[in-house]
Amino acid sequence: MRDSYTILAQCYDRLTTDVEYGRWADFAQRHFQRLERPVHSVLELGCGTGSLTRLLAERGCAVTAVDLSPDMLTAAEQKCRGLDVRFLCQDMTRLSASRLGTQMDAVVSGLDSVNYITKPRSLARMFQRVYRILLPGGLFLFDVKTPAALEGADGQTCLDEDDDFYCVWRADYYPRRRVCAYGLDLFLQNEDGSWTRGGEYHEEYAYTMDELDGFLREAGFRHVRQYGDKSMRPPKEGAQRVFFAARKDI
Questions:
Q1: Do the Cβ atoms of 38 and 59 come closer than 8 Å?
Q2: Is the C-alpha dihedral spanning 168, 171, 172, 178 positive or negative?
Q3: How far is CA 80 from CA 111, 129, 211, in A?
Q4: Cα–Cα distance measured from residue 49 to residue 75, given in angstroms and rounded to the nearest whole number
Q5: Strand pairing partners for 159?
């Protein structure tokens, strides 16, 4: 996955215009306001091109944004110029408090970045790292695609195009592996009118909500709640996306 998002980074924002980053930031802020301690420092895991990063920083947070893709981070840095944001090119499953140099008031991870960790024990260990990174009373907030969403994507083919790019992708779900695989073909037009073709392959793991709850509690979190998509209400049956809020004891 280290080489992923190389060509995709160049058109990622245009392919995700339907993503409601503003509502995600609003959701996070509502949870921040519920905490007994003010939220100043935020660690974002899987920041991508920095759309959520920028919104959090504009609302007064000092953000440390982490992503494994140098190309995505380059786009994020350009988007967040002049804001209180620090970027780290790092595998989010290996991040530590010593690498950060400080503990954090909150940790957030959006757009099903958690599903991209396809080894359950690696995810469980990441949750343990997040717990250690958080200050007492701190919050871990993330969203996931549910098994219903990933299973339902099986066989889907989607096409996005504009004057200077073309992207087609197909999803295939493998029940035995509990993985949804996405194969993407991308074509980008160069300044001289020629076209560059690139391919991407991504996988997402279908974690159950009970598994995620268990990993969080195993890591030390005692206050764990689930929410519907950017909602302050519990998720409905058959939900496609679920948000988790886990708080570290004071």
A1: no
A2: positive
A3: 19, 26, 35
A4: 5
A5: 168
